[in-house]
Amino acid sequence: MNIVIVGPGAIGSLWAYKLHQAGHKVSLWGTKQNQQWMLAADDSPEILFSYNQPQTLIDADLLLITVKAWQVEAAITPLQPHVNKDAILLFMHNGMGAVDNIVELIFEYPVVIATTTHGALKVDAHHVKHTGIGQTQLGAFNEKGSQCTFLVDVLNHALPTVSWNSNIRFALWNKLAINCAINPLTAIHQCLNGALAEEKFRPTLDAVIDELVCVMQAEEIPVDRNQLTTTIDNVIRATAANKSSMHQDIFYRRQTEIDFITGYLVRKAQQHGIEVPANSELYKQIQLLEKNGKHHD
Ligand code: KPL
């Protein structure tokens, strides 16, 4: 397939490399001024990719869009007029609501959403490290997207395991719940994910989870409070040595994904008339940290 990776950050670069190795014609689209870009993954040799070449958009069968949620609209708006209407748009990012914000722009395309638990780290501009083996779930965002289940084979061949979830909203909400619990707290306290297992965080985590359960139920997402608590505790343990993405964003004074994580939850709660004071407080604190560009060392 002719594949364009839009936003070759850590996860996008990993997919670019793996899809190239699997035999696809892969190009990159990003914010640099270059026409070519060298990439290596782990200890494998560097590969030269074409970069920001308009013809690759015209020829694309698949656009894999791996920019952050808050960058989706700005990334897609200038590209969309050049992309063939048969090309599949596959979005992969943390959080929810970003694709809903651009439905007008993309309704004619087959649109697929992905959520992944692979870990990737950009060691430098040209090297990506696969730091954690995970799973990827795909699901349709629109009717045309539901015709794209063959993507499971394409992607699974490149970077397993990939599965199709006919209710991708369930998977996205579960990932959102994990991110609502872990990301803001680790960002505020500038601590490793594992620190959230300490007793002092239990009351806040419990309050965040209680509110998540209420909103998920209102959204008709199957959820069990004890099971969700166990899932979150397991992720805290499994990623104990990680700095969460929001922890890093605050540390490096970058914009965070809070509007598409806790912000999304708070907006959904408002629509249902549900009070979510614990999450609202975390939302407020992250917005303040973002505004002040403050960080702890
Ligand atoms: O997705 C993550 C993130 O940091 O954004 C978790 C699961 C919390 C792992 O760090």
From TrEMBL:
**Keyword terms:** NADP, Oxidoreductase, Pantothenate biosynthesis
Task: Domain (Ketopantoate reductase C-terminal): give its ranges.
Answer: 167-289
The keyword Membrane appears for this protein: no
Catalytic reaction annotation: (R)-pantoate + NADP(+) = 2-dehydropantoate + NADPH + H(+)
Among InterPro entries, the record links this protein to: 6-PGluconate_DH-like_C_sf (IPR008927), 6PGD_dom2 (IPR013328), ApbA (IPR003710), Ketopantoate_reductase (IPR050838), KPA_reductase (IPR013752), KPR_N (IPR013332), NAD(P)-bd_dom_sf (IPR036291)
One MF term in the entry's GO annotations = 2-dehydropantoate 2-reductase activity
Which Gene3D superfamilies does this chain map to? N-(1-d-carboxylethyl)-l-norvaline Dehydrogenase, domain 2, NAD(P)-binding Rossmann-like Domain
Domain annotation Ketopantoate reductase N-terminal: ranges: 3-142
User: Pathway listed for it?
Assistant: Cofactor biosynthesis; (R)-pantothenate biosynthesis; (R)-pantoate from 3-methyl-2-oxobutanoate: step 2/2
General function of this protein: Catalyzes the NADPH-dependent reduction of ketopantoate into pantoic acid.
Q: What is stated as this protein's family in its record?
A: Belongs to the ketopantoate reductase family.
This protein is called what? 2-dehydropantoate 2-reductase
What is the protein's species of origin?
Vibrio plantisponsor
Supply the source organism's classification: Bacteria, Pseudomonadati, Pseudomonadota, Gammaproteobacteria, Vibrionales
